[in-house]
């Protein structure tokens, strides 16, 4: 019997791999000879770097980079040594949580630190990049990141424009003569789960600007500046498209990756599933286990466990899901591939108790054990 396990992290409790290994222990308790494959699961957002890096045998690195206001901070990212791939979350260098509410102002925040992370990974031998771009504090169109990689964004007097979206107001010329030559060897897969364009009513300024500290006046200004920036970019990069789905992600960082670095903007779950080779393992599997901290109707609308279930059903696998809580609407998941879902709690507990790592892992192990005792009672030992 072969069981493939890919469980998303239980936020604040178990990491993806901890949850996967806990579930594996439950299966092994009933079927000691079972072949079990544990893979990390994440959706491209928070936790993806840790999940992919630890789950795929990589290593964590740190670099001294600029935060959204140019202050030096230590930021972490992962390296998958086997294929020289860096796994980066832009929020590590330019995320909203790095700023106090009083400091939030997209007119002045920069993505320069994201470019510094890429540059550090290149220096350490990486030529392939997986980048999550959620949770940004910026709206600079990715100009900060690109500047760190050698692109020059100049005003009418030939001087570098200011940091932040306000710098785009002065942009008159783009130069690429000093870009890192090694960028030609690099590939970028960008985890992007929004489809907003760069400009307009559904653009990054209008939709995401308020949460980053922008008022109505600055939203209108930034939208105009980003439009002009896009037109100037098109003079140098024919593939540039401000209306590309995801161009407005992370304050236009999606546009920068697509236009200047030839990146693919993709759903985060797709990238994770492909990079971990999960579907290959499912081809001859009997059972697939997935889950997350809470399963409800939102899960059925495309969260990570659903991505796993859909793949599993292509190969005729039975899919079982495990969660810290099953909430209203969770049965909708049955329609998209999850055959049965289980809550791992044994009794009513406080949130603090539910979040205890050791208790959660034991509960998950015990619940998986009971589920597979039922499998054994009903079908015996699958061959």
UniProtKB/TrEMBL annotation:
InterPro entries: Glyc_kinase_flavodox-like_fold, Glycerate_kinase, Glycerate_kinase_RE-like, Glycerate_kinase_sf
UniProt keyword Isomerase present: no
Superkingdom of origin: Bacteria
Keywords annotated in UniProt: Kinase, Transferase
The UniProt record lists the keyword Kinase: yes
Pfam families to which the protein is assigned, alphabetical: Gly_kinase
Gene Ontology terms: biological process: organic acid phosphorylation
Molecular function as annotated in GO: glycerate kinase activity
Entry's family note: Belongs to the glycerate kinase type-1 family.
Stated name of the protein: Glycerate kinase
Organism: Gallintestinimicrobium propionicum
